[in-house]
Amino acid sequence: MAEIDMNMSEFREELADALAEGGTRTLPRLTDEELAVLDPVTAEESIVSSPHLSALPPEQQNLVMATALRSLVARGVVEISNVQEMAAVLNGSHGSSLAQVDMRIQFDVDLVLTLRRTADRALALRQETAAGAAFAYAYIHTSHLLLLERVTTAGVHLFTLAGNIRDAAVLLCSFVDPFGVADRDGPEQRLGPSLDRDDIGPLAGIIDNAKIVTSLALLADDPGPMMVAYGTDTAIWTVTVDRPQGPTGIRSQAVGRETLTRRLMDMLS
């Protein structure tokens, strides 16, 4: 990995300054198996889903990771002096499960790996549709430096650097409301902690007819607000909770695009 010759706060400041000048920046996309090669962690250690790789049996995972390594080298994303040995280790034909590797990673990809590992807080989103589950993550470094990661149902990870909370929220709004049906705000309804079906009024029908359900949670040492967004053919409804297990502060509402964006900004803040 490339060395960063400054402390983390200076690094964040330099990046934030660059984003302020150039605006939101798209970074390279990577697959589940490419990330597993570049940043090997166990499923228990990572907050990020790998929907394609995790669905494969272990022996097939090793094979696709070996292929991913060759692809990364061929594209110039990484430089490895002993790439054939590493590929043999990954596909199980080396005779040993260990090998020394000197890996040099392209700067933009190294930046992605660094920002994923070093965020103090992250907003995690899980979206359920008939096509399966998709995911998004916002790694919050400062109010002027956020890394967004969107994971498709096919296990492709798309990365974007955002230079302010509103830009990040607008991008996440398109994930929560991909068809743009968040039209206007409706009346807010306060819900009891039991969330019994008889007590949630019109929300029961919304849940039954939702085509897209997105769960959002702030991951931090001090857990923050949570939200679930239900998308129908004509509207987006949100259910917000001030804190996990909180006995009060549960609210539901049909929301317009601007209110949905503000709710996301609040969670990122």
If you had to describe this structure to a student in words, what would you say it looks like?
This is EspG family protein. It comes from Nonomuraea pusilla. The chain has 269 residues and is of the alpha+beta class. Helix content is 35%, strand content 28%. Strand 6 and strand 7 form a beta hairpin. Helix 2 packs across helix 4. The chain is globular. The two termini are 31 Å apart. The relative contact order is 0.13.
Summarize the structure.
This protein is an alpha+beta fold. It has 2 domains: 8-115, no CATH class; 164-268, no CATH class. Helices cover 35% and strands 28% of the residues.
What overall geometry do the principal axes of the alpha carbons give?
Answer: globular
What's the main sheet like? Answer: 10 strands, antiparallel
Helical residue percent?
A: 25-40%
Would you list the SSEs in sequence order as H and E? HEHHHEHEHEEEEHEHEEEEH
Number of helices: 9
> Strand tally, please?
12
What is Rg? 21 Å
Going by helix content, strand content and strand pairing, the class is alpha+beta
Strand order of the largest sheet: 1-7-6-5-4-9-10-11-12-8
Protein name: EspG family protein
Organism: Nonomuraea pusilla
